[in-house]
Amino acid sequence: MHTSYSCWGNAFRLALCLIAAAGSGCGRGERVFTANGKVTYPDGTPLTGAQVEFHSLANPLVIGRGDVDKDGKFRLSTFSSGDGALEGDHEVAVHPPLGMGDRDLTPNPPNVIDEKFEDFARSGLKFTVTEDESKNYFEIVVTKPAKPVKEAPARKVEFGLK
Known about the structure:
This protein has 2 helices and 11 strands, in the order αββββββββαβββ. The protein has helices at 2-23, 120-123, and strands spanning 32-33, 36-40, 51-56, 63-67, 73-75, 85-86, 88-95, 105-106, 125-129, 137-141, 155-156.
């Protein structure tokens, strides 16, 4: 019985994703351009293992995402791997690296960036993706938390069927 609920739940989530993609303007002339960059602290040290998200202001249902590598570099993906981000203005959020705990209860590493960077509205990060891809390299500077670093509480992460 649990399996049937899981299957229906996954089918429902897939249907929602398809509806969101259909309503997002994909295939209706919205243009995506290559966009990448680097995330560092003010001293130039790269932030590694994080994720960057570009939230389109023109189409709020569409978010470009990129994983930050060991050198602090990222490449955005919106509809397919490495395709970039929608043309136009974006609010940007940076999410710190997740821990590598077990599948259901992933302990987070200590906070490595100020929590404001995890919120599009509070991060203060705004960038414009243009047709001129030479202008789509974005340098993002994040700061560490103001308070002493403590172990963050564990966060439940779901990966689908169990």
